[in-house]
Design goal:
This protein is α+β, with helices and mostly antiparallel strands. It has helices at 3-6, 24-30, 34-39, 49-57, 59-66, 111-125, 140-148; strands at residues 9-11, 14-18, 70-76, 82-89, 95-102, 130-135, 152-153, 158-161, 167-176. Belongs to the acetyltransferase family. RimJ subfamily.
Length: 181
């Protein structure tokens, strides 16, 4: 069973579904937020609505079809209002890394924790054994969210290359999916 067969997935009012062209304006606006620019380490230096529409038509679709990348929108389950983005990447037979960011209006309400919980349920359905994540030690909101979602620190902070290609010190986390049974 592929990723697309298992989407959308929901958790307590938050829905994960593939990034779509309808999300382009809100996604592009979200990437202009100072916290997203500082901590998300997105692959492209700038996102416009046209860039996001093209990503939805090409890379998002290809990643889902191949099963090695899932660029998902975090949306409100009731009205599908865009809240942020969650990406499963470096997907192998046993694990995947998860990255996420929220638009400013969605912060402070547990949205990211519920999105991570939904992504863990998706990963289990895919047969994965663990989800990993990493964040800068200074990103206290992300660290708190990962802790709340059940992720455990995986060793001491260490150098890593982010999706944007930046080299920096990150704290790695791991969520064993067997613990969700």
């Amino acid at each position: 069973m592929g990723i697309t067969d298992l989407l959308p997935v929901a958790c307590d009012g938050v829905l994960l579904r593939p990034l779509a062209e309808v999300d382009a304006e809100a996604y592009a606006a979200g990437t202009e937020d100072a916290a997203v620019r500082r901590y998300a380490h997105l692959p492209l230096p700038e996102y416009t609505p046209d860039t996001v529409r093209e990503l939805a038509r090409s890379d998002v679709r290809k990643g889902l079809m191949s099963g090695n990348l899932a660029v998902l929108s975090i949306v409100d389950e009731k009205d599908e209002a865009f809240l942020g983005s969650l990406v499963l990447f470096d997907i192998t037979a046993h694990e995947a890394e998860v990255g996420f960011w929220l638009s400013p209006h969605a912060r402070g309400r547990g949205v990211a924790t519920r999105a991570l919980t939904a992504s863990a349920h998706l990963a289990r359905k895919l047969g994965l054994r663990a989800l990993t994540a990493r964040t800068e030690p200074a990103n206290t909101a992300s660290r708190r969210t990962l802790d709340t979602a059940g992720f455990l620190p995986d060793g001491a902070p260490r150098q890593s290359t982010t999706p944007s290609g930046a080299q920096l010190t990150t704290q790695h986390y791991r969520l064993p999916l067997e613990s969700l049974e």
